[in-house]
Amino acid sequence: MDVEVLDRVSENHPDVTKKNVEYAFKRYRHLTPRFSKEPTQYMAVGFDDTGRALEMLAFIDYREREEGSGDGHNNRHETYIVFHAMQCTKKFLSEMNVGKWETQYILGGNQHGISRQKRERHFHGFH
Question: Is 104 exposed, middle or buried (0-12, 13-18, 19+ CB in 10 A)?
């Protein structure tokens, strides 16, 4: 999966780097289309390389493949363009229809026996 993060993400949220967003999006926990927007937007939630939950909004850019690349069957290549990312909120998870227990887990609750601090220690060495 190719992911491109727009500069505006870090400009609007300086604590969120492009690297954080790319890591979290490529390993998303939930991905839901938002068909009410044109082009279709994708809502994603994932953990960055420090264990912090990020909410992300993206759309797909269909780009032409270069000559000689790909499998020869399709000349279009999908790239997710992330235009919004920040620390995950309950409102975002609610719009995605994420359940109560999963919401508590993502936002740092310990329903599954894992606190945010423990998640951060686990992810600390994985960059």
Answer: middle
